[in-house]
Amino acid sequence: MLTARALLVTAAILAAPIPVATAELTTADDGRGNTMRFSLEAPGVTAAAPAEILRGAVHGPEVSTVLVRVVPAAQVPGRCESPTARACYRGRSDGTGEITVPAVDSPELDRVLLHEYGHHIDNNVRNTGIEPDGTPGWWRERGVAALLAGGSVARDYRLGWDRSLGELFAEDYVQLNLRTPFGLDWIAPPSAAVLDAMRQDITGAAQGPPPRQVGGAGPDGPPAAAVAGRLRLTRSGVLRPNASGTLRFRLLGPGRRVDVSAATVGGRGPGALRVHLACGGRTVGRTGPRRFVRLGRTGLGPATCTVRVTNSGRSTAGYRLRVSLTRAAA
């Protein structure tokens, strides 16, 4: 069984049990004669939003071979068997699969559903015969053979979530459909040639409607200038020794303050974290290694910033990262 999980933005995991709604199986037409299937397992949810997202996405007849489960957000980690999962895909060798997504609104639903549908595309379009492997034109235009040979990516998660080949393809698929910041910071967003190749592989036509605009700024929340006062961002996950997790955000104006804290939250050893903060392509702060680290910097922006947290310990450990963005006083 092929399993690919999207660990995009941390969801709160509630200690109290959540009542499980009776699943309602429903279908919708994709506008091209293909039947889409949904299992509605959250109170009050309908298939209207996920159906519209998939209907407008670049896809083929494989849309009829996936079941989309819409469940309460707090149940996603348990359903996906990962404490930090926001959504997940489980694919089978015959091309069928299941996507589990939280009952949330746009733009979060757009991103997580399309990311997971990218895994379904990967599972259906034949390429190298060894999954995950994306699609043939994407593989060629992205230079995946060289990335694998150079150790920049791996077919599994040995290099971390963001260096997994399947996640790279899924994030590129999001870019094919949405105008939203790219979710990976170690590689450039897909070029027009990469996107055209993906569309050709999936639909047989290189040209089509451009990516549509959605609210917010992708997996790391809206830009700091879009909210008043303070914006808080969080991310959590599990890191192997020397592996890193990242969180990217934008500062749209000058004089911003950025406060970062990171802490270990379990694992087989004590853990030791390092934090690196870069804005506008330059390092503005670093810490560690410690179990709990803090970092604060002022006078930043406008810039795109990245916080990277690295496990410097000898054992796999969980982490929780918090970033607070504050505007300069008027």
Would you list the SSEs in sequence order as H and E?
A: EEEHEHEEHHHHEHEEEEEEEEE
Helix share bin: 10-25%
Total of domains: 2
Low-confidence stretches: 1-20, 216-229
Q: How many distinct helices?
A: 7
Provide mean pLDDT, rounded: 84
Q: What is the beta-strand fraction? A: 25-35%
Structural class from helices and strands?
alpha+beta
Distance between the termini: 56 Å
Largest sheet: 6 strands, mixed
- The total strand number stands at 16
Order of strands in the sheet with most strands: 1-5-6-4-3-2
Radius of gyration: 20 Å
Shape: globular
Structure report:
- The protein is of the alpha+beta class and 330 residues long.
- The protein folds into two domains: 2-213, no CATH class; 222-326, Jelly Rolls.
- Helices cover 21% and strands 33% of the residues.
- The protein has a six-stranded mixed sheet. It has a four-stranded antiparallel sheet with strand order 9-16-11-14, with no helix packed on it.
- Helix 3 packs across helix 6.
- Residues 1-20 and 216-229 have low confidence and may be disordered.
